[in-house]
Amino acid sequence: MSKSRPIGEKASEEPQAAGRGRYTLFGEDRGCPSLAPGLYIVATPIGHLADISLRALETLAAADLIACEDTRVTSKLLARYAIARPLLPYHEHNASVMRPRLLTELQAGRAVALVSDAGTPLISDPGYRLVREAQAAGHKVTAIPGPSAALAALVISGLPTDRFFFEGFLPPREAARRSRIADLAAIPATLILFETGPRLPAALRDLSAGLGAREAAVCRELTKLHEEVRRGDLARLAHDYTQGAEMRGEFVIVIAPPPEQAGLVGQEQIDELLRSALSNASLKDAVEAVTAASGQPRRLIYQRALALSKERADGRD
């Protein structure tokens, strides 16, 4: 997360390139309707600044105040469309201090827009408690929908979209990460995760060990100039990102769901899952992961894992 202005700093006044309730689009100065009092949750581009909606532009231009994760990031977006409104930093480090101030603004009958650095606010960003408290105080809360990195990655992944589970960021520590992956293994849905470049190789290795030979896609820098999507099974992707694949930028990992019918998982597929898991994890961890992914009795998976381990030791695998 980018550094923001000091906690408690006054809202900044941007140069009045355009009056309140006005913005510029394709070189044309446009006016927009006034906003009713309330909290507006506004989605902003995840990369390409042209992805913002007309309704989002009108809302930002007409708001009394814009609460944003980093004023420097949001200022660039506003400058692109000649929007001049006061900005107030609101992020995870100052939320407890700034939340009462925003609620006071709402109580005074003002229209407050909430944005994150990119995408839809509250998705792996602060804002949940602000929405809850605003609603509890009787203020209207309105969503201005738009870009989402999670959904953008899902629809270009080539994986099932009928049911999905958004996990966000995995724990940074290995033990906690592997434990959480074991919890995710049996969820009957496509998984969507966020990750940083420095942690990506370790995360993919643990996902491969914990989930087995599932198909996946790693989406990097979505909607930006260097957008890239790599597809393959988790073991293949884990290998790629330890052998020089580009790790700069922001990443979304999309992973196929487990087999639809656990009872129909065949021996060949179980063996494939076990071989993949055993190549990256201990026998115990591999057994736990494949048991969760296949739905088969642990005793049977353990016996087969012992057999495969013996074959590998004997040089037959």
Could you characterize what this model shows?
The protein has 317 residues and is α/β, with parallel strands linked by helices. It has 3 domains: 22-147, Tetrapyrrole methylase, N-terminal domain (Cobalt-precorrin-4 Transmethylase, domain 1, 3-Layer(aba) Sandwich), CATH 3.40.1010.10; 150-255, 2-Layer Sandwich (Methyltransferase, Cobalt-precorrin-4 Transmethylase, Domain 2); 262-313. Helix content is 38%, strand content 19%. The chain has 11 helices and 12 strands. A 5-stranded parallel beta sheet has the order 5-4-6-3-7, with helices on both faces. It has a 5-stranded mixed beta sheet with strand order 8-9-12-10-11, with helices on both faces. It has a two-stranded antiparallel sheet with strand order 1-2. It is elongated, with a radius of gyration of 24 Å. Mean pLDDT is 88; it is low at 1-10 and 12-18.
Q: Provide the domain count.
A: 3
Question: How many beta-strand runs?
Answer: 12
| Helix-strand sequence | EEEHEHEHEHEHEHEHEEHEHHH
The number of helical runs is: 11
Q: What profile does the largest beta sheet have?
A: 5 strands, parallel
Q: What form results from the Cα inertia axes?
A: elongated
What would CATH call the homologous superfamily of the largest domain? Tetrapyrrole methylase, N-terminal domain
Identify the strand order in the major beta sheet.
5-4-6-3-7
What's the end-to-end separation, in Å?
46 Å
What is the structural class? alpha/beta
At CATH's second level, what is the architecture of the largest domain? 3-Layer(aba) Sandwich
Q: Helix content range of the residues, please?
A: 25-40%
